[in-house]
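Morning F.,

Quick status update on the modeling queue. The single chain you submitted on Monday has been processed. Sequence for confirmation:
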Amino acid sequence: MAGLLALAAVRAVAGGDTARAVAVTGAAALMGAVYGAGPSLRSVRSSRSAATVWLGALGATWLVLLALTPDGLWAAFPLYFLHLHLLPVRRALPAVAATAGAAVLAYVAHGAPVSPGVFVGPPLGAAVAVATVLGYQALYRENERRRQLIEELVSTRAGLAAAERHAGTLAERERLAREIHDTLAQGLSSIHLLLRAAERALPPGAPAAPHIERARRAAQDNLAEARRFVRALAPPSLERDSLVAALRRLCEPGAAVGDDGPRVRFALSGTPVPLPTPYEVALLRIAQSALANTVRHARAGRAGVTLTFMDASVTLDVVDDGAGFDPGSPGAPSAEGGFGLPAMRARAESLGGTFAVESAPGQGTAVAVALPLPLPPTPVTAPAPPAGGAS
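Structure tokens below.
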């Protein structure tokens, strides 16, 4: 802009008309002052209305210069970019067209030689400016969308990694709890029972061996400690409440399926009995996974979770009225790796239970788990001493 205004002033001075040279130089200086004031005003940088007023004042000084000399035509080109940069597109395009038209009319009005370039030059410059600015803005918007997409992808990846770490931690806790319960705790319980049987096997009136009593108490204390470890490694949902309370809370609105998910109803059948921690963990995890499948894949309106205690087993049924699927098809979710069903089956079978899925397209899905109730420990009795008493 400064170079174009200086060019107009120099050409006016070189023309030899002093009065005209003074007028053109003054108009060029005034336009340069208005142009330079724009970036220094904070309101112009922050307010679109203030920028519009500044553009109007700059355009008025340009029209004055254009009326004095046809060389003011060249200042139209930077004005195109200002209009496109500061005004919305619906107002910038008419402003650019008006600027190009004013430049052509002023050039013709000054009596300059008329040629096709007079009518093609300003509109062609306006078209180049529009294509350049709109192309740059489109590229900028596309880069912004990509940047936001990358940020969302990074955030999602971080959240997924955190969720996987949390799931891995919970899975490892459950595995340790199951191993401690099935090996260490059961072994200590057997040792405790055997030591009690050894005490009862002593002849009547014989003093109890102190080391047997100490060993029995040590086994009992360590069994209590192992059970405490199992309880501490249980899922948080089971730390405060029973399995029934945890399942009932899981079926509350918004707990497992979100506000937009299906309505879930919980039902309890039979008389609840205490279950080993691995049983409670397996049943709770299977219910959570089945409801998650209902939300993600079934598009169901209603779902039901039923926990049933029977004489020799405990069963869990999760039923929905969703889209369903064909379990016998090659791409069925029951295939390896689909929808978490293999993991549910593995949980149930690891405890000696059964796992079944019933579904049909358009008929909903039913997941059934049955776990045998553990038998109470049988007291270990020592063989009766031979007739005649101990030797």
